[in-house]
């Protein structure tokens, strides 16, 4: 993967050296290559720059490089360098998808201007692609998963793969991390979305009632059972059953659940008639089920049966860049509900929120956003001791969060311009790029 603004390909070493110095003086980060194959190996679909390639090269020529780039991503701008008067090559290049061509000898200022325009077009294409992806998620009815962090993008990619299947899923996440929201999200994006999504908290139902809740009962099955009642499994037929806090399920019921999962049949209490069910099971836990199974507190066979695919939900403190977006989202919902106007967060307030450990995760953030709508900025002051931020761990961890916040604010203030961000923070280009790579920051996300 490369973060260069320009990939320059030419088989002549002297030309590569001159062009590299020229681009650097113009504030363009460049990587030079002696042949097309080595440049193509460095290229990825998320490359946000421009390819400048000589046509006449031994082995793979410029048109061959162009064809390979177009097969990877046809929105990557490729500019072909041609000889003077070589119109047929230029026409062929344009027909095959080249952004433009430029004849040798070329005007220095025209080339730089052409490269800048091509780079802007590429960055716009990537931004549009990203925004379309976000709109594809946000614009759909049902629950939403918001976040631009690398952790959330990996989670969304995994969900996109799993949702169309019928595989049972085990969600693991801390309290308030959004396990129910993720389960609903998966259901709404699955072929089962037209059927019921049924949720039950295994830790909230009394032990003597949970069996009836899950499997249902016939009239007269026990005292007070005056009429037949279908259980959660039957109600979820064709859809999804979400078992929250599955670690709280009584041991005796774990045996019956395992049998249902294996046979896909249930028997109502008071009946001997098995009923076939077509249900996707999404179980969720905040505990380490593997450790509980090792100590005998949770059946090992049930753990392995539930754990067809395990999805880890990252805690909020591990994705601080998502906090302002989530806060704004929850504040807008609360403002509409209460008929209030919201006061936009100041940069220092947003930075402060990103430093908190959030033991209650998204649920805690949502509650704070609602208090903020009702009380204004005083809600933030009452939440923690201002000036004494709680840290997420060691000094190094706290400093890393603060450094990331400064980098994000500077990139945002400078519309993603590396040159301007370097000047504001007083960093060398390589140092800035190293820090951005360390924190998973992409300058294209901060372009207006």
TrEMBL record:
GO terms, molecular function: ATP binding; sequence-specific DNA binding
Key words of the record: ATP-binding, DNA-binding, Nucleotide-binding, Phosphoprotein, Transcription, Transcription regulation, Two-component regulatory system
Domain Sigma-54 factor interaction: 145-374
Keyword Ribonucleoprotein: no
Domain Response regulatory: 5-119
Keyword Nucleotide-binding: yes
Modified-residue entries (4-aspartylphosphate), positions: 54
A single GO BP: regulation of DNA-templated transcription
Organism domain of life: Bacteria
A Pfam entry, by short name: AAA_lid_14
Protein name: Sigma-54-dependent Fis family transcriptional regulator
Annotated organism of origin: Natronospirillum operosum
């Amino acid at each position: 993967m490369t973060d260069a603004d320009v990939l320059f390909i030419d088989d002549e070493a002297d030309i590569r050296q001159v062009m590299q110095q020229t681009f650097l003086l113009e504030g363009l980060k460049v990587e030079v290559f002696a042949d097309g194959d080595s440049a193509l190996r460095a290229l990825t679909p998320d490359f946000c720059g421009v390819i400048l390639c000589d046509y006449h090269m031994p082995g793979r020529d410029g048109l061959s490089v162009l064809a390979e780039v177009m097969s990877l991503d046809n929105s990557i701008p490729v500019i072909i360098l041609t000889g003077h008067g070589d119109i047929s090559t230029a026409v062929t290049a344009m027909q095959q998808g080249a952004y433009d061509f430029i004849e040798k000898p070329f005007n220095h200022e025209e080339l730089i201007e052409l490269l800048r325009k091509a780079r802007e077009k590429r960055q716009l294409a990537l931004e549009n692609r990203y925004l379309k992806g976000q709109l594809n998620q946000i614009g759909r009815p049902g629950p939403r998963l918001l976040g631009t962090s690398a952790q959330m993008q990996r989670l969304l990619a995994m969900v996109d793969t799993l949702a169309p299947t019928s595989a049972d899923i085990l969600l693991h996440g801390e309290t308030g991390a959004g396990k129910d929201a993720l389960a609903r999200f998966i259901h709404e994006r699955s072929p089962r979305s037209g059927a019921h999504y049924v949720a039950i908290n295994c830790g909230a139902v009394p032990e003597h009632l949970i069996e009836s809740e899950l499997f249902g009962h016939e009239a007269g099955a026990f005292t007070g059972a005056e009429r037949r009642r279908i259980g959660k499994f039957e109600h979820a037929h064709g859809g999804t059953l979400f078992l929250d806090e599955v670690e709280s399920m009584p041991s005796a019921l774990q045996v019956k659940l395992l049998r249902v999962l294996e046979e896909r049949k249930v028997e109502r209490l008071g009946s001997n008639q098995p009923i076939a069910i077509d249900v996707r099971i999404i179980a969720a836990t905040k505990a380490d089920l593997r450790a509980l199974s090792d100590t005998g507190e949770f059946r090992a066979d049930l753990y392995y049966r539930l754990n067809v695919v395990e999805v880890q939900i990252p805690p909020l403190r591990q994705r601080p860049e998502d906090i302002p977006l989530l806060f704004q989202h929850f504040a807008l919902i609360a403002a509409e509900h209460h008929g209030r106007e919201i006061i936009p967060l100041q940069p220092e307030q947003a930075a402060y929120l990103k430093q908190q450990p959030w033991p209650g995760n998204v649920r805690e953030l949502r509650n704070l956003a609602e208090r903020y709508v009702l009380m204004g900025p005083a809600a933030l002051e009452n939440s923690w001791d201002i000036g004494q931020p709680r840290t997420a761990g060691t000094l190094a961890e706290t400093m890393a969060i603060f450094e990331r916040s400064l980098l994000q604010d500077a990139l945002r203030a400078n519309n993603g311009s590396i040159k301007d961000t370097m000047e504001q923070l007083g960093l060398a280009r390589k140092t800035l790029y190293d820090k951005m790579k360390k924190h998973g920051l992409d300058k294209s996300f901060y372009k207006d």
